[in-house]
């Protein structure tokens, strides 16, 4: 099966008829995979692709579609990484793929293979609607030796009434052929009584209640009403999430209205809008999806706006031939009162074991988004984070000009700042102000974790404080930065002695000497270690080499004298 990765609205527009045919034929399709919904959503989405699979040659139509979005995120420890998510996630009620039933399993295999060609750390399968067997097939394409599979637990939700809501449970009402049958067959006696009373109230002039539906002339006003009511009820609880919902609602609803798939009843009381529902219509799957609602929390409590709007919408759906009234996420008791049934819709993650992107680099399709994050960090004065972003971008595309320019400027500024901190630390060390020196060196490493002078100086300070394990960790980082530095191997040998790892220390000294045969200190320290190991002839030779390189090395001269004295005493005693 061949997979194309479509990335332009022009390509998407050319697929409309093909898409609609697959959508209508897929029993697992849903409104949020309809062509017009995704077309509108992708107009404002970040980097996206629609994976389109065909089973034959290019003259045949596609048999499956998987719309995805590529996200760029930042980890304070590792820097930028990529996540692939299902298009529409966190706004659409459901996500997933479309396929002709006869080709669905083959399409899952083809899409899984294609996804491995992207660079990502997480594959986010949020709110995915897919038969359990097919979902397991998808997971099996990402073997446990390389990938971790996890179910994402949703946030706990306890209502003011004490209900413990499970948001993996999605609720729907199967609709009979007429409204009275719904009342009599699915509703309990108490709910049935209140439902009938609610609908009667709409007909009572003295109650001053009526329901309006949007027209071309009122649509903008009605969307404003909905957003205002929704924000008043929910926005203050989670403002950032609320702004996300409002922004996307304003973007999506006009297109849904134009397509004829928006049903948005507004309940008015005494001339004031007190509640509004957003319902989406999916004639292909005979489903009405309740999506958003908002109500005036200060309205007359004698009115039950939610019950009135649900009863009105249920009756409207039945009269217009719909078979499912989808109430969405959350097993609230009021939903079950309508004779609802449940299904599970969950969130999953497939992640790399390494914690890095597949391939170890950013996905090249996300570099513009990555640079946007670098620019944000730069404006916020976070030079280290911005510089790290630029380095990661350039590792993927060395010719990416904006990152080249910003990176050069940042590296220069960063180098000046780090050099200043290291110089200040060395001054503190000379004056004995160890705490101030340590603080400056740690700040320098926060800005540049690879700064070799800071790593070596802080390691020396920690050795002075008798913290060899911490010093060894820093020197391990230094070895990764400069594996060919004699000074690093020399200092590593010193700390290994403090850890009583004498054979390893000797190897470090030998490596330092191999890299720099003029390093008198390395020969002197090696001589002292050999003396501890009772390899006295080799120790004497090492001290003599140190003095040949640096006749003024008092430590080597003193140690050689002690060694000769010890050796002479041993001979006299013999």
UniProtKB/TrEMBL annotation:
SMART domains: TPR (SM00028). Residues 189-335 form the BioF2-like acetyltransferase domain. TPR repeats lie at residues 486-519, 520-553. The keyword Transferase applies. The keyword Repeat applies. Coiled coil: none annotated. One of its GO terms (molecular function) is transferase activity. InterPro entries: Acyl_CoA_acyltransferase, BioF2-like_GNAT_dom, TPR-like_helical_dom_sf, TPR_rpt, Ycf3/AcsC/BcsC/TPR_MFPF. It comes from the Bacteria. Keywords: Repeat, TPR repeat, Transferase. PANTHER family: CELLULOSE SYNTHASE OPERON PROTEIN C, TPR REPEAT-CONTAINING PROTEIN MJ0263. This is GNAT family N-acetyltransferase.
């Amino acid at each position: 099966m061949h997979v194309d990765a479509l990335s332009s609205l022009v390509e998407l527009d050319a697929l409309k008829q093909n898409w609609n045919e697959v959508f209508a034929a897929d029993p697992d399709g849903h409104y949020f995979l309809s062509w017009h919904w995704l077309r509108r959503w992708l107009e404002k989405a970040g980097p996206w692709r629609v994976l389109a699979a065909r089973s034959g040659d290019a003259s045949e139509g596609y048999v499956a579609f998987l719309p995805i979005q590529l996200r760029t995120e930042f980890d304070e420890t590792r820097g930028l990484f990529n996540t692939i998510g299902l298009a529409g996630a966190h706004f659409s009620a459901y996500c997933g793929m479309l396929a002709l039933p006869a080709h669905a399993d083959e399409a899952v295999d083809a899409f899984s293979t294609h996804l491995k060609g992207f660079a990502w750390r997480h594959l986010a399968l949020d709110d995915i609607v897919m038969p359990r067997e097919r979902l397991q097939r998808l997971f099996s394409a990402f073997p446990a030796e390389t990938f971790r599979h996890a179910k994402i637990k949703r946030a706990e939700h306890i209502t003011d009434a004490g209900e413990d809501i499970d948001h993996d449970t999605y609720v729907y009402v199967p609709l009979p052929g007429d409204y009275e049958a719904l009342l009599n067959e699915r509703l309990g006696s108490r709910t049935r009584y209140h439902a009938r009373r609610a609908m009667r109230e709409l007909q009572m002039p003295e109650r001053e209640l009526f329901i309006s539906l949007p027209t071309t002339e009122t649509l903008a006003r009605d969307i404003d009403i909905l957003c205002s009511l929704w924000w008043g009820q929910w926005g203050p609880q989670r403002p950032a999430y609320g702004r996300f919902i409002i922004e996307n609602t304003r973007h999506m609803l006009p297109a849904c209205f134009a397509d004829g798939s928006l049903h948005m009843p507004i309940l008015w009381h005494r001339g004031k809008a007190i509640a509004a529902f957003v319902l989406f219509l999916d004639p292909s799957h005979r489903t009405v999806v309740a999506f958003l609602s908002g109500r005036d929390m200060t309205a007359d409590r004698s009115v039950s706006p939610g019950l009135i709007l649900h009863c009105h919408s249920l009756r409207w759906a039945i009269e217009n031939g719909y078979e499912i009234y989808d109430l969405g996420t959350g097993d609230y008791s009021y939903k079950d009162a309508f004779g609802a049934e449940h299904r599970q819709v969950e969130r999953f993650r497939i992640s790399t074991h390494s914690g890095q992107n597949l391939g170890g680099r950013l996905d090249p399709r996300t570099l513009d988004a990555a640079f946007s994050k670098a620019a944000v960090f730069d404006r916020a004065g976070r030079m280290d984070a911005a510089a790290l972003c630029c380095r990661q971008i350039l590792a993927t595309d060395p010719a990416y000009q904006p990152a080249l320019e910003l990176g050069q400027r940042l590296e220069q500024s960063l180098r000046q700042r780090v050099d200043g901190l290291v110089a200040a630390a060395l001054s503190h060390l000379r004056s004995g102000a160890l705490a101030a020196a340590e603080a400056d060196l740690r700040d320098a490493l926060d800005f540049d974790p690879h700064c070799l002078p800071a790593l070596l100086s802080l390691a020396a300070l920690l050795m002075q404080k008798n913290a060899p394990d911490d010093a060894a960790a820093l020197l391990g980082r230094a070895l990764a930065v400069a594996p060919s530095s004699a000074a690093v191997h020399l200092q590593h040998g010193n700390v290994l002695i403090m850890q009583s790892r004498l054979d390893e220390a000797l190897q470090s000294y030998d490596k330092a000497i191999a890299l720099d045969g003029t390093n008198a200190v390395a020969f002197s320290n090696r001589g002292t270690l050999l003396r501890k190991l009772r390899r006295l002839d080799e120790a004497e030779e090492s001290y003599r080499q140190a003095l040949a390189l640096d006749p003024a090395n008092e430590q080597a001269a003193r140690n050689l004298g002690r060694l000769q004295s010890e050796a002479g005493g041993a001979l006299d005693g013999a």
